[in-house]
Structures are given as C-alpha cells and as structure tokens.
Amino acid sequence: MYKKNYSKEYQKIDVEEVNVRNGLEKLAEAGEQIRKLKEVIAEKSKDLGIKNEKLNELKKVIEVEAANASEVKRVCEIDKAKCEETARVVNIDKEICQREMEAAIPILKEATAALDKIKGADISEMKGYKDMDHILRVTFDCVAIILQKPLIDYKPATLTIKKEQVDGISTSWEQ
C-alpha cells in the first residue's frame, strides 16, 4: 500500500512537474513576446513622436493660414461694405438722373421739333445779318450743341448787346 500510495503521489508530482515545466515554458514564451512587443512599442513610440512633431508643425501652419484667412475675410467684408455703400449712392444718383432725364425729354422733344422747323434757307438768311444780337448767337451755339456740331473754343471777347460794349465770350458764329 505504501508503494501504491508512493507511486500515486509520484505520478501526481510528475504531472505537476510537467505542468510546471509547461507553465515555465509558456512564461518564457510570454516574456519573449513581451520583450518583442516592447521593441515594437519603442519603434512605434519613435514614429509617433516624429508624427506628433509633424502634426504640431502642421497645426502651426494651419493656425497661421487660418489667421491669414480671417484677415482676408475681414478685408473682404470691409470692401463689400464699401461696394454696397457705393452701389447705394449710385442708385440714388441713378434715380435723380432718371427723374431729371424724364423731365428733360419733353423739353428735348420740343426743341427738336422746333429745330426741325428751321430750314437751311432760314440759317442762310440769319448768316447774312451783320448786326446779329449776341443772345441769338449764343442760342445758335446751343442749337449746334444739341445737333452735336463742332464749336470753336470759347475765348474772352467784347460784345455789343443793346448797343453797349460788354465783356463776354466769343461765339461760334464766325465759323
């Protein structure tokens, strides 16, 4: 019995020895794997450090570009406000000009109709007058302007109006 018990116990110890050896081998393998993982982690940490530096540099560049973009946006908003103000002023001027043009069109039509009634013979007859009144000469200058005919440059001149000598400007009548 003693031998039997001894044998059983010996077998148990052998099994435990095998289990312990397997456990030690597995621990050794795990230790080796941990050592390899530590090497991989060290390499990855270096790569991560380099990538973090690049990321920080890129972040700084992005911040600078964002600041520049904000400045450009601010300048554009100022320019937009100026353009809108200019457009508002131009629209006001346009409305004023439109009203003035609407008021001037009937006068222009009336003047054009009156000019259409003037014949070449009438103008020739007027040119024949030597003592033509200065007001009439200025009126003919206005007609030439409406008809878009050339005028001479205005120069200071002494004119006779109602038999009086007065300072004025030359007319295009002499042309």
SSE blueprint and pairings:
Layout (H helix, E strand, L loop, with lengths): L1 H116 L2 H9 L5 H13 L9 E6 L2 E6 L6
Antiparallel strand pairs: 1-2
Question: Can you characterise this structure?
Answer:
With 175 residues, the protein is mostly helical. It has a domain at 118-175. The chain is built from 3 helices and 2 strands. The protein has helices at residues 2-117, 120-128, 134-146; strands at residues 156-161, 164-169. It has a two-stranded antiparallel sheet. A hairpin with a 2-residue loop joins strand 1 and strand 2. The longest helix is centred in the middle third of the chain and has 116 residues, at 2-117. The protein starts with a helix and ends in a 6-residue tail after the last strand. The relative contact order is 0.04.
Give the quaternary arrangement of the chains. Answer: single chain
Number of helical regions: 3
Gyration radius, rounded: 54 Å
Tell me the total number of β-strands.
2
In which order are the strands of the major sheet placed?
1-2
In round numbers, the mean pLDDT is 84
Q: Which class of secondary structure composition applies to the elements?
A: mainly alpha
Shape: rod-shaped
Strand fraction equals: 5-15%
Measure the end-to-end span: 158 Å
* Major sheet details: 2 strands, antiparallel
- Give the proportion of residues in helices: over 70%
Query: What is the helix/strand order?
Result: HHHEE
| Low-pLDDT runs | none
